[in-house]
Specification:
single chain; 350 residues; alpha/beta; 8-stranded parallel beta barrel; 17% strand; elongated
């Protein structure tokens, strides 16, 4: 069993309820009012955590990159700088949203994409997320280690060597890995859910799933494979203009996913014996060793004397069909009528 990690006020790991993160991200479209509405709907949909994003565009990317034409969200700007700045929430906004989330019993999480934004998240006391884009940002990870704050880290777009390097940098920091594929949306054949138990076994860390696929079925399957966190983008309406609405779940979908994950949790575990609820079926429909004809006291049992038939009854009193060979050669101590279960106390060694 992998270790358990405490984030915020919640313990995460094997044997604990799956943490459900509604990734609001940038789906507030720069509106604090919409952000508040998204928090309300996430709470009603069964989320445990709401997650936002924090960037300082000038610190995150080169001037040439962020000032290139950007056609994805024309209503928000013509370049990435314009779009990113339009969608950015202030530290005061985030503090207000954190207070709102916590008043509803939700944990508040923020992805920090650059060093100034990381300082903001640390000062807020929010749960820290390192997005897939940032797993190769060595200086960012070094600062996380210095701050000694728990962190959730996605692994999308990183190879095994890079994942190991990032984990080594964060040694000593409470860490949860997230299996993630940085393709938006992610086609089913690229999701590779078996990576979840692979990462758990390799690094002995709790592992969650950050999904960008269509629908909820594969996220539910991730919980079946032991994902301790399920994170999905969350929106009021996928048709809204914005960077991530199209790959997001709407409230009713998120709520259905939560219900399905909770059902999976209730069904997990290892069966180590016979449940009381199985006893009626066992007593009536398992088979006992029965006499194939009338048997007399002193008869030595042969295969021809025996047949296996329902009901078994109490296995403490009667032989199961698995014990047939063990009674061959035993002696009958009382007469037994044909088609009768043979009681354990009516035979003895010859």
């Amino acid at each position: 069993m992998t270790e358990q990690v405490n984030i915020g006020t919640i313990d995460v790991g094997d044997g604990l309820p799956t943490l459900m993160i509604a990734e609001i991200g940038l789906n507030h479209n720069g509106s604090i009012e919409l952000a508040h509405t998204l928090i309300d709907d996430a709470a009603l949909s069964g989320a445990n955590v709401v997650k936002f994003q924090k960037r300082s565009p000038a610190d995150l990317a080169t001037k040439n990159f962020i000032d290139k034409p950007f056609l994805k969200c024309p209503l928000f700007g013509k370049t990435q700088r314009q779009v990113r700045e339009r969608l950015e929430l202030s530290e005061e906004n985030l503090a207000e949203l954190k207070e709102h989330a916590e008043s509803l019993g939700l944990q508040f999480c923020v992805s920090a994409f650059d060093l100034p934004s990381l300082e903001t998240v640390i000062s807020l006391g929010a749960i820290l997320k390192i997005a897939s884009h940032s797993i190769t940002n060595g200086p960012l990870l070094e600062r996380v280690r210095e701050a000694e704050v728990p962190v959730i880290m996605s692994t999308g777009g990183a190879n095994d060597k890079e994942i190991k390097q990032a984990i080594d940098i964060l040694k000593g920091v409470p860490l949860i890995l997230m299996h993630c594929v940085s393709a938006y949306p992610t086609p089913d054949h690229l999701i590779r859910l078996d990576t979840i138990p692979y990462l758990k076994d390799k690094y002995q860390l709790p592992v969650g799933f950050s999904g960008h696929e269509k629908g909820i079925e594969l996220s539910v399957a991730a919980a079946t494979l032991g994902a301790c966190i399920i994170e999905r983008h969350f929106t009021l309406n996928r048709s809204m203009m914005g960077l991530d609405h199209g790959i997001s779940l709407e409230p009713q979908e998120f709520a259905q996913m939560v219900l399905n994950v909770r059902r999976v949790e209730s069904a997990r575990g290892i069966s180590k014996g016979i449940f009381p609820e199985e006893k009626a079926a066992r007593l009536n429909y398992h088979v006992a060793i029965c006499s194939s004809h009338d048997l007399k006291k002193g008869d030595i049992l042969t295969h021809a004397d025996l047949v296996c038939k329902q009901p078994l009854g109490d296995a403490e009193l009667f032989f199961t069909g698995l014990e047939l060979e063990s009674v061959i050669g035993m002696k009958i101590t009382e007469d037994i009528l044909a088609d009768t279960p043979i009681a354990r106390n009516l035979i003895q060694k010859n």
